[in-house]
Write a structure and sequence with these properties.
With 398 residues, this protein is α+β, with helices and mostly antiparallel strands. The chain has a domain at 129-386. The chain has 14 helices and eleven strands. It has helices at 37-44, 48-68, 107-112, 114-119, 144-150, 153-159, 168-175, 196-201, 221-229, 248-255, 265-284, 295-299, 310-325, 339-349; strands at 17-18, 24-25, 83-88, 91-96, 128-129, 178-179, 184-187, 190-192, 245-247, 292-294, 334-335. It has a three-stranded antiparallel β-sheet with strand order 6-7-8, with no helix packed on it. A two-stranded antiparallel sheet has the order 1-2. A two-stranded antiparallel sheet has the order 3-4. The longest helix is centred in the first third of the chain and has 21 residues, at 48-68. The radius of gyration is 30 Å and the shape is globular.
Length: 398
């Protein structure tokens, strides 16, 4: 027979309270052989990080009491001192004199952010957006069944066309409000950001499937390019670094022609892969140079029936480009990523300074070429409405 212990033996200590001076009293007073709460707290904070946390809390509480007595616990901003320390419940935060400090910001990002120069009346020039199209490479209808198997046919049908002119000034003003801490634009009306839905509705990219991640074997990558596209890149010259990239103009010169009509299926697939590689690395995944195609994206096109979440990869790549662009301050700075989609997103949601939107046809959305009936793969994306938009850049009219 088991004896049941009285409930009084299992009483939990009182909940944590905050003292009137703002310091956290995490060791409440307890009754028993352990003594008072102050002694228990001192015993718990005799080693390691606990001791440091206890000392910071005591320093913060002393600073609060000093301010209440009218003493200056820390020099005011702009007083000329090198550093000022301000206490908070969780510890001390360092602040450089003469600079404003905003809660929740990463110090490394905030120090290099373009907004700091704007706040200090610095002069910044508009960045160059690396957004391009693939209208200079004809797309053969024989490629479309393979693109449909990849789930990228809506993307190809829209972005093989001419891209609207980019308003570099407006895009730069938007990037100046990007915060890497939250991956969102901080505007006067609140926070906004690009989502997966935008990648699907504007870009026509699939958001279901495998993630664009993994290990890409770079050994003998030129041989793999030759197997997948039918053309072999030339090795780098002596002393040059092997970047695992090919120039766009080289790829367009080798494969940017209409596929011969009497070729077999293997050659058609090679032409299709080369075209898709060119389109993805020129429109969705361009770097700041925007003139090279990275090998890693061609390797993902080796299997036509393998479904990837291209929308997720494009969104993550765009976030990374924005994180880096908001800290670039040189006159020649630029930004890569899915710039075409970002500008359409800006026009759709921000009415200030945007061009006129093309009217939707009276009969509603129709396929691009009008020859395939109600095939959902051929319906335009949201970007189609802004295809012929006129953008006033300040210096010229596009």
């Amino acid at each position: 027979m088991c004896a049941v212990a009285p409930k009084s033996m299992y009483k939990s200590p009182p909940p944590t309270k905050l003292r009137s001076d703002g310091a956290e009293c995490w060791a409440a007073r307890r009754v028993g052989s352990h003594g008072t709460g102050e002694k228990l707290r001192q015993r718990r904070c005799t080693r390691g990080g606990a001791a440091r946390r206890w000392r910071r809390r005591e320093a913060a509480a002393a600073a609060v009491r000093a301010r209440k007595r009218g003493a200056a616990a820390a020099p005011a901003v702009g007083s000329g001192s090198e550093k000022a320390r301000r206490g908070s419940g969780g510890g001390c935060r360092e602040r450089l004199a003469g600079e404003r400090w905003y809660d929740g910001l990463h110090k490394g990002y905030d120090k290099e952010h373009r907004a700091r120069d704007i706040e200090n009346n610095g002069e910044l020039t508009p960045m160059r957006m690396r957004g391009h199209s693939a209208h200079d490479w004809p797309c053969d209808e024989r490629y479309e069944p393979y693109f449909e198997r990849l789930g990228l046919l809506p993307f190809v049908l829209q972005f093989k066309r001419h891209a609207p002119s980019i308003n570099h000034g407006a895009m730069t003003a938007l990037i100046d409000r990007w915060r890497p801490e939250t991956h969102s634009f901080h505007l006067s009306c609140g926070e906004m950001t690009v989502t997966l839905e935008d990648m699907a509705m504007i870009g026509g990219l699939p958001i279901n499937g495998e993630a664009l991640t993994g290990t890409t074997v770079s050994a003998n990558w030129r041989d793999r390019v030759g197997q997948l596209t039918g053309v072999f890149p030339e090795p780098p010259e002596e002393g040059e670094r092997d970047s695992e990239k090919v120039l766009h103009h080289w790829l367009r010169g080798e494969r940017g022609v209409v596929c011969p009509p009497d070729t077999n299926e293997v050659v058609v697939q090679q032409h299709a892969r080369a075209y898709m590689w060119y389109l993805l690395t020129r429109v969705v995944f361009p770097d700041c140079t925007s003139n090279k195609a990275q090998w890693i994206f061609l390797d993902l096109l080796s299997d036509w029936d393998r479904k990837y979440s291209w929308g997720s990869g494009a969104l993550a790549y765009l976030y990374r480009q924005l994180d880096e662009a908001c800290r670039r301050k040189k006159g020649t700075s630029g930004m890569g990523g899915f710039v075409w989609c970002l500008q359409v997103w800006m026009w759709e949601r921000m009415p200030v300074g945007r061009p006129e939107k093309n009217k939707t046809p009276p009969e509603g959305w129709v396929p691009h070429d009008g020859r395939y009936g109600e095939d959902p793969w051929r319906f335009p994306t949201v970007a189609y409405c802004w295809e012929m938009a006129n953008v006033y850049t300040g210096s010229s009219v596009a």
